[in-house]
Amino acid sequence: MSASLSRPRVGVWLIGARGSVATTVVTGCAAVAAGLHSPTGMVTETPAFTDSGLPALSDLVFGGHDTVDSPLPKRAETLTAGGVLPPGVATAVEAELASADGEIRPGGPAPGDTRSEAELITAFAHDIRDFMHRHELERAVVVNVASTEPACQGPDAPMPASTLYALAALHAGCPYVNFTPSEGMHHPAATREAERSGLPYAGRDGKTGQTLLRSVLGPMFAQRALTVRAWSGTNLLGGGDGAALADPAAAAAKNAGKERVLADTLGTTPQGETHIDDVPALGDWKTAWDHIAFDGFLGTRMILQTTWQGCDSALAAPLVLDLARLTARAHESGLSGPLDALAFYFKDPVGDAPSSLAEQYEALIGFAGSLRGARPTGPGTLRPAGSGEGAGLRPGTREGRERGPAEPTKGTGGLR
Questions:
Q1: Which residues are registered as beta bridge partners of 275?
Q2: What does the pLDDT look like over 96-153, one tens digit per residue?
Q3: Where do the DSSP E strands lie in 164-209?
Q4: Backbone region of residue 401 per phi and psi (left: phi > 0; alpha: psi in -120 to 50; beta: other values)
Q5: How far apart are CA 192 and CA 186, in angstroms?
Q6: Distances (CA, A) of 398 to 359, 370, 394
Q7: Residues whose CB falls within 8 Å of the CB of residue 325, separated by 6 or more in sequence, listed in order
Q8: pTM for this prediction
Q9: Rg of the chain's alpha carbons, rounded to an integer?
Q10: CA separation (Å) from 204 to 13, 51, 208, 266, 339?
Q11: Could you tell me if 24 and 80 are in contact, meaning their C-beta atoms sit under 8 angstroms apart?
């Protein structure tokens, strides 16, 4: 592990805490911490993050909100039967699953709930603060891993649940990560509150499969001066996400990030669309096809086709653990605002960040270096080594990349 054993424990509060992704996160964290499995897929467990001050996996404490009541050990059994979790692991970490399940509180708004938006936010924030108090946690990170919501219907529409949870996180004094394409912190009310809070946040929509590949292939075509004429894609998936994305409004929110990566990396928008089909029989497994038509030298027409088949929860879980650790460390370091350097993990990242995976990775590694150089200046607070009072780092922004990852800036000590 890359963290010191003497560091305090850190809370991870999961929205959608009994879903497939959350169950895999809790199971996987316990299994890796116990040495039962290697941390495959966790970038924060690679040598570049050694001594970056990240919390150890064994120091993460899980809780969350959900609207369903199926206990985590039972959910883990189901995922094991579906081949998502390896045989025996859920049984080996059943105590950890049961402990996390005991920290899950009813989410909402549920049908028939008459509480106002303000009352729901207050109740959710109370749950988070109570969790932190009972476990004597110095900090906790709230991560949304719930099913995708339909896009917001306008400024006069009720706040989506994801935004209620985001505001609750801010009211509880916690950094927030949106691993979904739901609105969350993008709602104007939450954006304003985030600016006032001085807390770090990251998102949105975890990049686990098709878009991950697009963020590599798009720059390849641009760098080789090959003209992409059309890029079409199809996704087949089941489970809760497949059911949620059967709603055209929810699918539109998901596809917007996928298509934006192409426009950003190619410098133009090619013909073609991306489709999402709900296939319940696939369960937690998904298949993504891409058909890319491009022109080579002298206008020779060529085709590249790709097929991505994977388990969504197993792809997402290590990224969620990475993000929780990195965001907790950013909070400890006194950073605030959008964490541009975490764009590596998202389809539609907040802040000022490139869309190319290689550039995003470079910014992430620079961020790891800046965290490694941070030093304590008081109880529960860190600042970059060599910085003056109130100085902060801007890792991952265009300014930060030009200046170098560890150079301090004069200002408020936050990311902008």
A1: 234
A2: 999 999 999 999 898 888 999 999 999 999 999 999 999 999 999 999 999 888 777 7
A3: 176-178, 200-203
A4: alpha
A5: 10
A6: 11, 16, 9
A7: 3, 10, 44, 54, 55, 57, 60
A8: 0.85
A9: 21
A10: 17, 27, 12, 21, 11
A11: no
Residue type, 9: R
Contact indicator for 43, 54 with CB cutoff of 8 Å = no
Question: Residue 250 above 70 pLDDT?
Answer: no
Q: What is the rounded distance in angstroms from the CA atom of residue 183 to the CA atom of residue 307?
A: 29
Residue 95's pLDDT band (boundaries 50, 70, 90)? very high
Burial of 47 (0-12, 13-18, 19+ CB in 10 A): exposed
Q: Which neighbouring-strand residues pair with 13?
A: 63, 142
Distance, CA of 304 to chain centre: 29
122 sits in the region (left: phi over 0; alpha: psi -120 to 50; else beta) called: alpha
Cβ neighbourhood burial of 271 (10 Å; 0-12, 13-18, 19+): exposed
387 pLDDT more than 60? no
What are the two backbone dihedrals, phi and then psi, of residue 82, each rounded to the nearest 5 degrees? -85, 0
Tokens describing residue 253: 């929110």
- Supply the DSSP string of 363-385, one letter for each residue: HHHHHHHHHHTEEEEETTEEEET
- Cα–Cα nearest to 165, from 192, 194, 125: 125
CA distance 206 to 181: 8
Buried b or exposed e, range 375-384, using 16+ CB within 10 angstroms: eeeeeeebbb
SS3 call for 166? helix
Which residue reads 């996987």 in tokens? 28
- Given a contact cutoff of 8 angstroms between Cβ atoms, the answer to whether 31 and 80 are in contact is no
The pair of three-digit structure tokens given for residue 5, joined into one six-digit string: 């054993």
